[in-house]
Amino acid sequence: MFGIGTTELLIIILVALVVLGPSKLPEIMKTVGKGFAEFKRLSTDVKSTLDAEVSRAERDERRKEKELAEKKAKAREESAKKAEKDEASLGEQEGKAGQADLSKPVDDAAPTRPEAQSGPVVDVQSSGPVAETVSKTPTSADKDKPGGDKA
């Protein structure tokens, strides 16, 4: 306990025997033993009290961290629900606007562009045998004309 070996303890007991005498030595040893027992009990109590306080502090800290994490998760969930609700209302508004556009009469719709006339497709910038072949290839409109089938 105090780093006292057997030899040192025997020397201390012999010195106490010489100084105190054989009649008082058992009574003093009993008192010293009670003192050591009381010291050990108090140190055990202090240690258990400190351990209990540390564990309570750790438990409180974990509880606070858990509550904070739950609050953050709840806030994220609420913001996700709000974003989903905003998207749904935006989609609903767009749907109503699209439905209103569909309910307009056809006369109000934008005029359609006139159809392109069909004819031979000629690439003006191209030259060579491919461009000449394209310009000489009869189209379906040429086949409908009298004498258009030149194949």
Automatic annotation (TrEMBL):
<keyword id="KW-0812">Transmembrane</keyword>
<keyword id="KW-0472">Membrane</keyword>
<feature type="region of interest" description="Disordered">
    <location>
        <begin position="46"/>
        <end position="151"/>
    </location>
</feature>
<dbReference type="GO" id="GO:0043953">
    <property type="term" value="P:protein transport by the Tat complex"/>
</dbReference>
<dbReference type="GO" id="GO:0033281">
    <property type="term" value="C:TAT protein transport complex"/>
</dbReference>
<keyword id="KW-1133">Transmembrane helix</keyword>
<feature type="transmembrane region" description="Helical">
    <location>
        <begin position="6"/>
        <end position="25"/>
    </location>
</feature>
<feature type="compositionally biased region" description="Basic and acidic residues">
    <location>
        <begin position="46"/>
        <end position="88"/>
    </location>
</feature>
<keyword id="KW-0813">Transport</keyword>
<dbReference type="InterPro" id="IPR003369">
    <property type="entry name" value="TatA/B/E"/>
</dbReference>
<protein>
    <recommendedName>
        <fullName>Sec-independent protein translocase protein TatB homolog</fullName>
    </recommendedName>
</protein>
<dbReference type="InterPro" id="IPR018448">
    <property type="entry name" value="TatB"/>
</dbReference>
<comment type="similarity">
    <text>Belongs to the TatB family.</text>
</comment>
<feature type="compositionally biased region" description="Basic and acidic residues">
    <location>
        <begin position="141"/>
        <end position="151"/>
    </location>
</feature>
<keyword id="KW-0811">Translocation</keyword>
<dbReference type="Pfam" id="PF02416">
    <property type="entry name" value="TatA_B_E"/>
</dbReference>
<keyword id="KW-0653">Protein transport</keyword>
<dbReference type="GO" id="GO:0008320">
    <property type="term" value="F:protein transmembrane transporter activity"/>
</dbReference>
<keyword id="KW-1003">Cell membrane</keyword>
<feature type="compositionally biased region" description="Polar residues">
    <location>
        <begin position="124"/>
        <end position="140"/>
    </location>
</feature>
